[in-house]
Amino acid sequence: MKATAMSNFEIVAREDFSNVTYLLEVRHPLMAKAAKPGQFVIVMLHENGERIPLTIADFDRKQGTITLVIQAVGKTTRQMQQECQVGASLFAMVGPMGTPSPISHAKKVLCVGGGLGVAPIFPQARAFKESGAYVIAVLGFRNKDLVFWEDKFRASCDELILCTNDGSAGMKGMITDGIKVALAQHPDIEEVVAIGPPVMMKACADATRPYKIKTMVSVNPIMVDGTGMCGGCRVKVGDQVKFACVDGPDFDGHLVDFDDLMLRLQRYTKDEKAAHERWSDSCRMTTQGGSSTLAG
After folding, report:
1. Is the pLDDT of residue 291 over 60?
2. pLDDT band at 52, cuts 50/70/90?
3. Which of 271, 182, 184 is nearest to 222 (CA)?
4. Do 7-97 and 108-265 share a fold?
5. CA 160, 161, 166, 172 torsion-angle sign
6. Exposure of 32 by Cβ count < 10 A (0-12 exposed, 13-18 middle, 19+ buried)?
7. Most buried of the four, 159, 169, 245, 255, by CB within 10 Å?
8. CA distances from 28 to 59, 62, 96, 99, 100 (A)
9. For residue 50, what pLDDT is reported?
10. 129: pLDDT confidence band, cut at 50, 70 and 90?
C-alpha cells in the first residue's frame, strides 16, 4: 500500500526531546486559525492506519501550523516516531475537536503539567496570561534529561516551579510537592488546571480539595471516532457519564472518577502489545530484506 501525501498535513519541523518523546509541527493553516487551548486532533499516519487522538500542544496562526508532542508508547506512535520526518505527510488530521478549555477571569492561576502533559498545558497557561491572570506553572519530570519547554514556560508565565523525581533539575520531589510550594506562597490562587497521567491528575485534585480551589483536568480516555457515537471515551464525572470527545476533555478534577478512568485505559493493553509485536516483526523482516523503510 502506498501512503497518500497530502500537502495540508505536511510535517514542517520535528524535535526529539528524548528517546520516546518527540514534537511534530504540521502545516494546516485553517486548523491553526481555528484551534483553541484544550482542543485535540485525530490523526492517521496511513490510509488504513489507526486513528489516534492527540492534544494540540501549540498553534501558530501566522505560520499556519499545529504542534503535536507525542510519546512513543504504542504501535502507531512508535511507527510515527520512525516515519514522521520533515517533508513527510500525515494521511489525515481531523480537528480541532473537543470543547475548548474555559479560560476564566481568575486573577491568579496555577497550571500543572506532568510528563507529556507539559505540552498541552502550555496553550492554557499562555491564554490565562493573555487574559490578564498571574500565572504560576508547576512542571514535573522524572529527571533533567526529559525536561522540555522550560524556556517557553518561563517566557509566558510569571513563575515556574520545576520538579524532578531525582532532583537533577529544579526542586526534588513529585509534582504534588511543587503544588504545595505554590499554594504556600500564593494562598490567593483561584484556579488550578492540571494535565498529565491520570494518577498524577488524581493526586493534584486530592492536593487542592482541602483548599476548595477550582481544579480542572484534561482526560484522555480510549477514543475511536471522536464524535460521541462510539461511547468509548466515557468518563464518570460526579453522578453523570460524560463523553470526553464532545463534553470534554476538560472536567472538574474533584468530580472525575479516576479509578474508573485508569481501569478503562488498561482494557486494551494486551491488544496494543500484540499490535506492537506484529509491527516490530514486520520492521525486522523489511530491514532484513534490504529496505530501511516500511512498506505502506
Report:
1. no
2. confident
3. 271
4. no
5. positive
6. buried
7. 245
8. 10, 11, 11, 20, 18
9. 85
10. very high
CATH number of 7-97: 2.40.30.10
Exposed, middle or buried: residue 186 (CB in 10 Å: 0-12, 13-18, 19+)? middle
Strand partners, 11: 26
Residue 236: φ, ψ to 5°: -85, 120
- Structure-derived torsion over alpha carbons of residues 103, 106, 109, 112, reported in degrees to the nearest 10: -40
Tens-place pLDDT, residues 133-146: 999 999 999 998 88
**Domain boundary assignment for the chain:** 7-97, 108-265
* % residues pLDDT > 90 (the chain): 45
> How does residue 3 score in pLDDT terms, banded at 50, 70 and 90?
very low
Q: Which residue has the higher pLDDT, 98 or 62?
A: 62
Into which CATH architecture does domain 108-265 fall?
Answer: 3-Layer(aba) Sandwich (3.40)
CB burial of residue 4 (10 Å; 0-12, 13-18, 19+): exposed
Q: Around 109, how many Cα atoms within 13 Å sit in the side-chain half-sphere?
A: 27
Look up residue 69 and give its three cell numbers: 508532542
